[in-house]
Amino acid sequence: MHLPIPLTTAPMEARSVDALPEGDRWCYEPKWDGFRCLAFRDGAAVELRSKSGQPLGRYFPDVIVALAAFPANRFVLDGEIVIPIERRLSFEALQLRLHPAESRVRKLADAHPALFVAFDLLVNAAGEDLTELPQQARRKALEGFVAVGGAAAAFRLSPSVADRDHALGWLDALGGDIDGIIAKRADLPYLGGSRDGMQKYKLQRTADCVVGGFRYGKNSKLVGSLLLGLYDERGLLDHVGFTATLPARDKPELTQRLEALIETPGFTGRAPGGPSRWSTERTGDWQPLSPQLVVEVRYDHVSENRFRHGTSLVRWRPDKAPRQCGFDQLPVAAGGGLGLLQRGGPA
Question: Which of 82, 123, 146, 345 could link 159 by a cystine bridge, Cβ 3.0 to 4.6 Å?
Fold first, then answer.
């Protein structure tokens, strides 16, 4: 490719904050629950690169086709790949795309096409490098770029607002389709690989979970993580995530306590080690426990009845009955994020 920035360009990253910044220097966007992606096009050639620089095109041939059909034949976009299923965004569907068989990937793409959600323009249709321009100017250029494209398939513009309260309202309105808010400095250039110009804010919630199993630490005889479960409406214990924030001083005693409770099956519903392209050889290596222990954990996002990221241990709950730990503690997934992704990205 003969573009003014290389395929190895690192995307801007965001620094985690406990409160969303405010002031006229900031603009706000939803933090979509998808795969971060830089999209490069030079003539007929289209490349998709992940945040770590890995090629993504073979897993998202539908996005390649959509970007190849865009009116502009030269550009570099920063955005997110998402997959809508029944008006909601599915992270599990994204994971399933990371499959070695091309036939399987194409079958999945036909069943549930992906969308590319654009939120920054790094190279415009004239082949000009925009990374030195301030965010505010790049955003204006992006909106003009998208307007020229019309209703291109599989392509959407992420909304951007200057109103902090409006942005915070997305967290309640959009359910699980976003996992936070991104704040961007409107006056700064594109700082690839840096966290200086962006901040991310996520709601922190807590839930009481049953410890349905555990894993030993890597190359260790001590516990490394606790496997968490919640009871569903049928009374089955589903695996929902893990916590590995265990104080080192507590691990010897905790390991003995856990080993005394080892008992199958552990989880009576969905169990750890289910199909996932993120799985490792240790994913299925876990010890089932009699469901007697309860912990309170802090989490930031729920997707398809799972904690999307690792949780933080808050405290043990000996006062809580395991059967009281149900999915009713989690926020109802309202969805609605697709409503923001019409052409032009209304806020």
Answer: 345
